[in-house]
Amino acid sequence: MRLGILGTFAAMAVWGATPAMAEVKEASDSGFTVNQTKSVAASPDKVWAALIAPAGWWSSAHSWSGNAKNLSLDPRAGGCFCERWGAGEAEHGRVVHAVKGKLLRISGALGPLQGEAVTGTLSFTLTPEGTGTKISVDYVVGGHSRFPLKDIAGGVDGVIGEQVASLAKLVGG
Question: What is the domain count for the chain?
């Protein structure tokens, strides 16, 4: 988030031109839904352990402080997906549903969406698949913003895709 809001939106517009845009499930002026899915050769419990430690897989480029090591996640209802550093702190989202090894759902408008009157729901669903796990991530955003939300759906999908790929790589996917 160090790019600032305008720089982040410009980067999102560029990412929107990548093949990741194919994962935008729907988009309108008032909202969008994106989905990313990866299969990994790791158990749901191993994926869960990594998932709840975002400092190990979230990109520093998509943090307010510029350092993912400042991220934490409390995986219980009401728990915070937060970032704390010397100059400040931010709540990226609030856990609204957690089932160990199966589902983590966070309510929050990520990144530059935080300054708009929108709601975002980020769901990580872990499904056993053979000896591994299918990771499915949905981010559903809707509400009022000062720009058409469909204009950034592809970019947001790219950012979510980057995080999912990093999580998958961490657990051996």
Answer: 1
Q: Element (H or E) spanning 170, and its range?
A: helix 153-170
SS3 81: strand
Distance separating alpha carbons of residues 85 and 81, to the nearest angstrom: 14
Q: What is the pLDDT of residues 146-170, one digit of tens each?
A: 999 999 999 999 999 999 999 999 9
Q: How far apart are CA 54 and CA 100, in angstroms?
A: 15
Q: Does the pTM exceed 0.90?
A: no
pLDDT tens for residues 122-147? 999 999 999 999 999 999 999 999 99
Strand partners, 95: 106
Which CATH number is 109's domain given?
Answer: 3.30.530.20
Distances (CA, A) of 59 to 63, 66, 96, 115, 173: 7, 9, 23, 20, 17
